[in-house]
Amino acid sequence: xxxxxxxGVVNGMLRRAIAMVGVIGAALALTGCGTTGEPLPRAGExxxxxxxxxxxxxxxxxxxxxxxxxxxxxxxxDGRISAPLVEELFASGKTSVELARDIERVLxxxxxxxxxxxxxxxxxxxxxEQVRVLGEAVSPLAMPYRQDMTLLDLMISTGGISEFAxxxxxxxxxxxxxxxxxxxxxxxxxxxxxxxxxNVEMRPGDILIIPESWF
Length: 215
What we know:
Elements: H1 2-31, E1 35-36, E2 58-63, E3 71-74, E4 80-83, E5 86-90, H2 96-107, E6 116-122, E7 131-135, E8 141-143, H3 151-158, E9 170-176, E10 179-185, H4 187-192, E11 207-210
Parallel strand pairs: 1-10, 7-11
Antiparallel strand pairs: 2-3, 2-6, 4-5, 7-8, 9-10, 9-11
């Protein structure tokens, strides 16, 4: 009976491992990743980053001296917004400053020298800039990139790694100068041993893949 139980456990782990190989293979194929072992920036190496508006975000439009046309609106799935005196304007793919200038150009037909400020109320982000976690995280997810986001921040959001994870074999798939690379990260060292030197900076569009330990 014990032998059969152990065999079942081993077979279950093998099936999970094979499934994980398929997930990793599919992710690599989708990203066209061919370079491995690239060093990733350690935490503290800052990125000059400006948030790019995406579908699902909420933008707050404040028009100085004109509260009747100041409002908050969602960015629709097609990337457009509609607001008082502003209809069918593309917002996705722009920074808040770029969108503000575009709104000013539209409003200038109706308001003399409009001054517009745009802030982001809720964040979803463009699909290609979301950071994703696949595999043996407690809660795999996709989330908007945030300024100065680190690997540790990301793992806190996922709840850490599962008991089945091969944390030190995890990889980050990243786009660098138009080329997809992958770099190894040491999640066991970071999360289980408290080695803060294993913390690295995340980048928009990163994909973290955490494989399963075979045994």
